[in-house]
Design goal:
Keywords: DNA-binding, Nucleus, Transcription, Transcription regulation
Mean pLDDT: 78
Shape: rod-shaped
Structural class: mainly alpha
Number of strands: 0
Low-confidence stretches: 13-17
Largest sheet: none
GO molecular function: DNA-binding transcription factor activity, RNA polymerase II-specific; RNA polymerase II cis-regulatory region sequence-specific DNA binding
Strand content: under 5%
Pfam families: bZIP_2
Number of helices: 4
Subcellular location: Nucleus
Organism: Vanessa tameamea (Kamehameha butterfly)
Length: about 120
């Protein structure tokens, strides 16, 4: 009854207050949407940055890991050679595998190589 009269009224009869409230609500809604949109953009940008940084770090660590694995292989070969050399030298057998190798000279060369490697880093 009273509501029927309200809906039958034209906007001029309702007054400016109803229109103003709707505009205020629309403006408030628009501001909230705009803030949310900016927050979403910022969040997505940060997420992409973190993903890119992680990807870069993973690649760097993979390269470092590969280099370290190569170093382990080289050091393992060196260790095996030195073990064999020591065993031949220590056993003092009749037919040594490393006959004619000056152990003192060889160890000096190994020490020089280590110094050169460390100084180049």
């Amino acid at each position: 009854m009273i509501l029927d009269d309200f809906w039958d009224m034209s906007p001029q009869k309702r007054g400016r207050r109803g229109v103003s409230d709707a505009d205020d609500e629309d403006d408030d809604y628009r501001r909230r949407r705009d803030r949310n949109n900016e927050a979403v953009k910022k969040s997505r940008y940060k997420s992409k940055q973190r993903t890119q940084e992680t990807f870069t770090r993973v690649n760097k660590l993979k390269a470092e890991n590969q280099m370290l694995e190569e170093k382990v292989k080289t050091l393992t070969k060196d260790l095996q050679f030195l073990k064999e050399l020591f065993m031949e030298y220590a056993s003092n057998s009749q037919d040594p595998k490393f006959e004619g190798i000056d152990l003192e000279k060889l160890l000096e060369d190994v020490q020089d190589d280590k110094k050169d490697t460390n100084s180049s880093k």
